[in-house]
Amino acid sequence: MIPINLQNRNALVCGASKGIGKACAIRLAQAGASVCILSRNAVLLEELLHQLPRTQYQNHQVLIANMEDPNDLDKKMHHLVLNHPIHILINNTGGPAAGQAHLAKVEEFELAFKQHLIANQIITSHAIQGMKDANYGRIINIISTSVKQPIDNLGVSNTIRGAVANWAKTLANELAAFHITVNNILPGATRTERLESIIQKEQLLHHKTQQEIEQLLLAAIPMKRFAEPEEIANAVAFLASPLAAYITGINVPVDGGRTKSL
Ligand SMILES: NC(=O)c1ccc[n+]([C@@H]2O[C@H](COP(=O)([O-])OP(=O)(O)OC[C@H]3O[C@@H](n4cnc5c(N)ncnc54)[C@H](OP(=O)(O)O)[C@@H]3O)[C@@H](O)[C@H]2O)c1
Predict the structure, then answer these.
(1) What is the pLDDT of residues 136-157, one digit of tens each?
(2) Residue 261 within a domain
(3) For a pocket test of ligand 1, which of 73, 156, 164, 194 has the largest count of ligand atoms closer than 8 A to its C-beta?
(4) In this structure, is residue 205 part of a structural domain?
(5) What is the DSSP string of 122-149?
(6) Within a domain: residue 242?
(7) What digits encode the pLDDT tens for the residues 104-136?
(8) What is the domain extent for residue 173?
(9) Helices (H) and strands (E) in the chain, counts
(10) Looking at ligand 1, which atom is closest to the CA of residue 23?
(11) How many domains does the structure of the chain reveal?
């Protein structure tokens, strides 16, 4: 098997304190990258910082930032890239609250737009020069299979994922000439706090037990199990590596076959 080697590469993983982002940070560090981990929770990030592998003289660091606050994010990204050019960027954050689109408040859409699309744009715009200078860039957005098939009762999420996917495809076209690839990972149901909260909301909505909701979700997955966050991170590590140099502008579902379309 060809190993994934990210030695001498700097990665920024957003939403890294938990779930999929945390698994990505660990996987990229295992592959040799120096990883900057970003979220709002200083305690969880410091804990993770000490867990990250350091076998290749890696220089990991923490960036405490709120992706709902564009001005703060802009300032912090400006300072980060002065000393730490980014070659691999994982755009990831918490998912919008569950609920139907036609019942959602305008403020919910505004918040999701700010936390996802605007935050991605700010972070990415600061990262691009370092990628150009290194002749190596990987931008990987963690979004959702709802890009291909909207998910019931995730109205705001479905909407913002479509916007991020089209933003990413546009960037892929613009940045390919600089050896920068831009791809989206579409996780299926993955064992994280996000999945737990979605299951709890479904329990309340349909007056069912946790087990009943889980059985319903699993029935729609050909592999009949949820993903582990590490399985999403493995796909991210591949796209982040030199092995994926000619792959850009695509959506990669990691969903056990759940998406019904190609
Ligand atoms: N799990 C699934 O089944 C699944 C399926 C499809 C898509 N997704 C999507 O994949 C993404 C990651 O999911 P996950 O399951 O890993 O979620 P998660 O377990 O809820 O973790 C979310 C991460 O994002 C960070 N975050 C949330 N709001 C933030 C903010 N305003 N600023 C900075 N960081 C913030 C959280 O850290 P702090 O709280 O420390 O800030 C945490 O590290 C989400 O967009 C989710 O909707 C998940």
Answers:
(1) 999 999 999 999 999 999 999 9
(2) no
(3) 194
(4) no
(5) HHHHHHHHHHHHHT-EEEEEE--GGGTS
(6) yes
(7) 999 999 999 999 999 999 999 999 999 999 999
(8) 10-190+228-254
(9) 9, 7
(10) 16
(11) 1
